[in-house]
Design goal:
Order of helices and strands: HHHHHHHHHHHHHHHHHH
Distance between the termini: 46 Å
Radius of gyration: 23 Å
Shape: globular
CATH architecture: Up-down Bundle
Oligomer: single chain
Number of domains: 1
Helix content: 55-70%
CATH topology: Amino acid/polyamine transporter I
Number of helices: 18
Number of strands: 0
Strand content: under 5%
Largest sheet: none
Amino acid sequence: MLQPYFGFLKSTLISMSRNSLNRWKYEVCKLSNETSNVAPDLATLRRRNLEGRFAIWNTTMGSSLLAMAWGLEKSGLLPGILINIAVAALCLYTAYVLLRVNEKHGIMGHHIEVPELCRMLIGKWAEVVAKIFSLIVLTGANIVYWILMSNFLYNFVMFAYGVLTEKDVQMEDSSVICPKNIVLSMNTTTIFKPDLNYIQIVTTFYKVWDLYSTVPVFLAAVMFPFLNFKSPTFFTKFNSIGTISVGYLLFFVTVKSLNWGINMESWSSELHLKPTFCALSGMLSLSYFIHNIIISIMRNNKHQEHNGRDLSIAFGLITFTYIFIGVFFYISFPLAKTCIEDNILNNFSKRDAMTIIARILLLFQLFTVFPLISFMLRNDILVTLNTISKNCPLGNFSYGKVVIINTAVLFVCIMFACFLPRIGTLIRYTGALSGLVYIFMLPSLLKMASLKKERALTLPKSIFHILIIIAGILNLISQFFIDDNGSTISVSFTFGILNNSYKQK
């Protein structure tokens, strides 16, 4: 009975890219149903539903799960839980508003999306804004995916290199590290054998294989051919990897937390709200972001009268999952809580057995999902170009345009992976910016426009929805006044520390 809700839960754990992929999957399913001359039997329908759920799960890169404990450290434990519930409730309300507005003002027989509703009820400018910020979400997804893939690939190769070149390599079961506390005086040569030839080889290897310079470029060379397929159908065959990797991530956090036990120096300090709490609210705006395709998802619900109930149950499960993972890892983490990284896998040595498995699974999952997200991004770009230039179809498909778009996307991803590889920063800024438009502003404006059209708009209702918009504006502005690292360390200095930590471990 909970399977449909759990499938919806999986669809929203990543915010960003998963949204447009869902829309693409629903259109493919609809087209295949329309072109089939034979009615599918019950087994076929069940298989299609299962494939759709795997496709949704596979788009869940786990970035919010990986960063949830980091978000709790920025806000405080109890305030973080309350902020999580409050943001979830607000996102649930605005998502439900979009469904209700579509029920009242959508056109029967037409697949209306949020941009079309904005054009009908608010104006052309709102439609343009909705499409632009949908592209921003997809671009942000690609960037975060790229940083994670570079990180996983780097650590996997580092582990393999250590196995091949070092003797008596020991696998570790619970090696926890704090990258922020790496001693700066250490260098790569002091931890290796005093053989000059060996040291020269090691030094050359680290120059060639560097997380913040060469690895993102090597990854691009491997990935680029897969981005130029006309259709990404091939990559949907690996949907089950998403189920395995996300399930393993939940298992990973649970096992680590149970092994560590509870490690809290002062429970009373966790009751107070920290000045950096906005990092969590910005991140959660993306963690619960599903608003640009919520209409498409719920349109496929068999019982439309239960949309509100189904949506509430789904958001409840999502909230529970985030709080469970974040709280478990946070209260059990054995080092100082300020050591928790925005990618919790960075808190483990590259020789930690469970971490190696997690990185391999997530790397393969992201490698199969990234082409799907890139396909949706380039498709939306071409559609937008066709909308802008109606008399001159710039958006028609051609491999030349595809190569140009993919090259530009990879260039942006590489730049961020080299100079700003902080997924926590990217998630909170993207979430606050896109959330302002899709979670706070557009649903509120659509609701007020709908009520005005029905002559039911009152002053209290106007004030309530204006306050929602103001909350979104404050959420965005506050992101510019907090520091992810909790200090004034410069970016280049921090990157140097992190780079040394990977090499030494």
